[in-house]
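User: Sequence in, structure out. Go.
Assistant: Echoing your sequence, followed by the structure tokens.
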Amino acid sequence: MRLSFPKCFAAFALALVCLVQSTQAAPYDPPTWRDSTWDYRSEDSVDIKSEISWWKVGTVGGLALSSYAAAYVFVFAKGWWDNDSSHFHFENDFKYALNLDKFGHFAAGVVLGETFYEGYRWSGLSEFQSYLYAGLSAMATHIAIDVKDGYSPAWGFSIFDVLSGTLGGFLPMAERYVPIFKYVDLKWSYWINSTYFYDKTTHRGDAVFTDDYVNQTFWASFKPYRLLPAGARKYYPSWLAFAAGLSIDETAMDYHAPDKDRHREVYLALDYDLEAFRPQSRMARTFIKFLNYFKLPAPAIQVYPEFNWYLLYPIKF
């Protein structure tokens, strides 16, 4: 179901108002739990004690297993595992979706990494241990999925899919300890502008939106405010960022189309650095951290393979 433009705009405006109202410090206030280089992810030593609670570890493990079981029943089995098995084999398909699926595996790894981090940190592991084990857990998840794919006649174990998911699982750790990630965010957007993927799926009810790469865009969002000298920052909105995005057209999903007709799409857009609002509670920071992985609607232009402009991309109207 598609929402009308007024409803979409109203919902988006309301979300921004609520976000601003929930913050307790203006963007230019002196840092409290962050340092001057905007280390958004650093934890206060008094915020969470590094003392392992085994019942919490058990709870995290139980929730993870339950999530895997639910994903298998409601997504994987229905989407692509509900078919005849085959002998285990490897397959690296570099033609599928012009490799945009590798970005999808990366994004899935990021979600897993962030989720596992929160669980391990809540269990009492140290900050570094939580990031490390979260990345390893994301890698293990992708290996398990691809092992199952290896027995499917329609798919196969893909080393590059596992590598993409693993790198995504370690992105939260990189954002904490690698300085360059203080100036760039990796984001994802999705909106059903085209039903091509669902129309071409043999059983429409079995279509899984994560495979709908025609309507997905993956972004690198750059934060000019953090690069400016301290004296110049007061003249630039701390929340305003610029993003470059990558997607594909409908023909890119057609194996039978000539390669010259299958195109990637490149976008440039305004963006919002939600971390600039700097809420003080850890719960609010965690919420902002997850939300900031989503590229919210904003003005954008398509620069390749043709020129178009959109008022609130990814919504095309």
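User: And one key feature?
Assistant: Residues 54-81 form the longest helix (28 residues).
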